[in-house]
Amino acid sequence: MTSPSTRTLDVERHAGRPPMLNVENGHDPARWAEQNSEALRMAVAEHGAVLVRGLGLRDPAEVAEVYRLLVPGGLMPDREAFAARQPYLDGVYSSLKWPANQPMCMHHELSYALEFPGLMLFACLQAPTTGGVTGVADARAVLDALPAELVQRFENEGWLLARSYNEDIGATYEEAFGVADRAAVEEYCRAHAIEFEWQPDGELRTRQRRPAIVRHPVTGERCWFNQVAFLNEWTIAPEVREYLVDVYGPDGLPFNTRFGNGEPIGEDIVALLNDVYERHTLRTPWETGDLMLVDNVRMAHSREAYEGPREVLVGMAEPRNVFDLVTKDGAR
């Protein structure tokens, strides 16, 4: 008889869709997670992401318990988010507060942070009427599909995230860093390899240079790992970008990305990146009660525009230092 710790799960693969595991209705979610934790984690290691359907998750407390059973090491606090999240309990958060009519294109969660989650957990408590898919894309395949000369430049220089914190849009620095005192903010920035500058009006601007390509911590495979496209000005809806530039100026955007040497990234490059992501996107609409685990290095993820209420709870686990995974010394 196969014990729960050694059993394998029957994960289905269909073209254009993320790997899926169908669970018979009637299971107690926490008991199922306890019995299948190791097998599910093995499936994620094999496939990069697994969508579990039929588990029937119902409320934040149940989600927190399932997350606890799946990641005994515990969940990470949310730091350096570019938009606010609602905290629930035990490291469980709402998805980012982002306009429903604007998509969040492919990215690796907190790939601009010194410490980022190696594993993402998503639980759908309310599926939207239409849209709202959390798509995934294999970062190895995305890297292979990009022009060699572009990859080489990003590998040599890395990428740069510039942020401007204000009270009007995006996360404030108090929300992002979890501290309000200026000295504590400066201490956080120094400890996390973030350059900072206070403006005369009290606004904080930061710059952080990170590798764009890393090696997977387990397999050693090279992965395209960043948020170059998502946090770039050319991914913002044109009318929103024009408004932000008019109000804050070109150097005062809430966030923007550049090449590692500080040079702007052109609209054509951002369009190319998003096109490659789209060609590698796997998507399946959420159903209420779904659970999805995503290897945050191997797989990028996105959130499509949607209509109707949508409630997806997020957990982040298995912290990694991004510079431990650099592909070469020059990537820093």
Automatic annotation (TrEMBL):
It comes from the Bacteria. Keywords: Antibiotic biosynthesis, Iron, Oxidoreductase. Its cofactor is Fe(2+). Residues 25-315 form the TauD/TfdA-like domain. It holds the Pfam family TauD. Residues 1-27 are annotated as: Disordered. This is TauD/TfdA-like domain-containing protein. It comes from Arthrobacter mangrovi.
